[in-house]
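Case study 2.
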Amino acid sequence: MDAGQEVLILCRLIIGALASFFAIMLWSRTRDIAWILVIIATIIAYVETIYSILRIIGIGGGNIFPENFTFLVSALLTCLPTVFIIAAFAVMVLRKYRNHFMDSK
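Prediction:
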């Protein structure tokens, strides 16, 4: 592992930790489903960062779990944050359109 990769890993860990910290702080203060979905996406993205870093280091690879399982976990952790962001946007769009149609009647 070269110095550039170490700096990238350190940046991903620090920025992800800050985002997750503030997301957890906000989670206890909000009841809005769209925000909760964004918070969940942020936390899953940080979990994916930690998992990918562990894979780079050599921990949690195919020696512990079957290769199909590690591929599935990697695919899920990569895609789930975007799925939750899409769900949050869909909630907001539905909320805006519902309010728009209710106001026009």
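The chain has one domain: 3-104.
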